[in-house]
Amino acid sequence: MCLGSHLSVSGGSWKAVEEAQKLKLRSLQIFTKNASRWVQRPIEEKDALRFREAVVEWGSHPISSHDSYLINLASPKEELFQKSIDAFTDEIERAQMLGLDFLVMHPGAHVGSGVEAAIERIAAGMLESFQRVPHKKTRILLENTAGGGTTMGRSFDELSDLLAAIDTPERTGTCLDTCHMFAAGYELRTAEGYQETMQQLDRTIGSRRVFALHLNDSKGDLGSHLDRHMHIGKGLIGKKGFEQVMEDSRFDGVPKILETPKEDDMDRKNLTLLKRLASKNPTS
């Protein structure tokens, strides 16, 4: 069962791996730099080596990094666009230095310039980064969004169009966030609604292009576009929605990462609940 969580790298990136081992996680997500800063010192080789050694000790389970919140490859402002390309390139380099499987990215916001123009910019920015950094291992995963403001990636159709524009399937894929899906209007709670949501996924992106899931309950209601994560079963998606995700064979073996609030040993409690919900499908 490929369950994991986003963990802190405070004190060294390898600390997150050690914590993952203590929690008996089978996947992990980290930041490789401060997500609220443009520039950070490079990763030293000795630190990267210590991280990679910790990963082997843990069992070499899948690891993702998440890109900086400042990056906006959809921006129509040239200065921010170029700055975002530089920062995104650095994110790829850092992920590959650590030997990470995936780098999850938010597509950005078009801030009024329109969806089609934003798709062109995102694709151009990513392709420039790909030219700068030869591919080793790390696959870039476009994450769906809750759809607030002018954020890109609010629908399966938009993500599918982005992947088609980038047209580099060997280096790209998607990460689906349950809170974001629900807030964007995709029903997960009922059997009929979940089936329709998955049919839409299969008609557009295709479930084979989903390489990671973020498992978060939602404070906002269906279609609210509110991006507020809640503990599993404590939000408006509820246990039934997560039971359907955990029992869905489409996502067997796909890393399932918690991004829920860090409080009162809740990672362990959320993971225990998810395991119980997955009891009918132990391969999930």
At CATH level 2, the architecture is Alpha-Beta Barrel
How far is the first residue's CA from the last residue's CA?
A: 5 Å
Oligomer: single chain
- As laid out across the biggest beta sheet, the strand order is 1-2-3-4-5-6-7-10
Largest sheet: 8 strands, parallel, barrel
CATH structural fold name: TIM Barrel
- CATH H-level superfamily title: Divalent-metal-dependent TIM barrel enzymes
**Residues in β-strands, percent:** 5-15%
Shape: globular
Helix/strand structural class: alpha/beta
- Enumerate the spans where pLDDT stays under 50 for 5 or more consecutive residues: none
Estimate the mean pLDDT confidence: 96
The radius of gyration computed from the alpha-carbon positions, rounded to a whole number of angstroms, is 18 Å
Number of strands: 10
Domain module tally? 1
Helix content: 40-55%
Could you give a short description of this structure?
This protein has 284 residues and is α/β, with parallel strands linked by helices. Helices cover 40% and strands 14% of the residues.
What would your notes on this structure say?
- The chain has a single domain (3-277), classed as TIM Barrel (Alpha-Beta Barrel).
- Helix 1 (13-22) packs parallel to helix 2 (45-58), helix 3 (78-98) crosses helix 4 and helix 4 (115-132) crosses helix 5.
- The longest helix is centred in the first third of the chain and has 21 residues, at 78-98.
- It has helices spanning 13-22, 45-58, 78-98, 115-132, 156-166, 178-183, 191-203, 238-246, 266-277, and strands at residues 3-6, 27-30, 63-66, 102-105, 139-143, 172-177, 210-215, 217-218, 229-230, 256-258.
- Strand 1 (3-6), helix 1 and strand 2 form a beta-alpha-beta unit.
- It has an eight-stranded parallel beta barrel with strand order 1-2-3-4-5-6-7-10, surrounded by four helices. The protein has a two-stranded antiparallel sheet with strand order 8-9.
- The protein has nine helices and ten strands.
- The chain has 284 residues and is of the alpha/beta class.
